[in-house]
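Subject: sequence -> structure tokens, single chain

Hey, anyone have a minute? Need the predicted structure for the following. Not urgent.
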Amino acid sequence: MYVENMRQWYPKFNRYRLNGGAVKILNEICAKVDPILILSSDWKNDYSIADMNEFFEWCGITHKIGDYTSSLWKVRFTSFQQLEECRAAEILLYVHEREVENYVAIDDLDLSPWIPNNFVHTPNSNMGIKTSNVREKIIKILTI
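Reply:
Had a minute. Here:
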């Protein structure tokens, strides 16, 4: 999710507040489909789930993170050229191990070669889920 360059700084996490427009859309999606949020971003390597939930709450996100995907970076994948494949593999491993029936992966990395049906690409990291039609695509996948 795009981090807006505002003056609202969270010293504990050395981060700016997440973009308010993106937070609003995420909250709307969560209110409509009540998903379990699973974090697959690199932030999982630096912060606990409790810390991330504290940060998300400070940003105004009403839903809690339920879990993280396992990190396969430097385990099965080691080159920057494999970053997208690594992220997709982490998500697919999580889905397989927990027998998740329906999910959507949202990322500015292009995971579509590995997750063709349950992926929404947000290629403009400055827009993220604020990109036109992204909210609708996410809801459509989660309500099938």
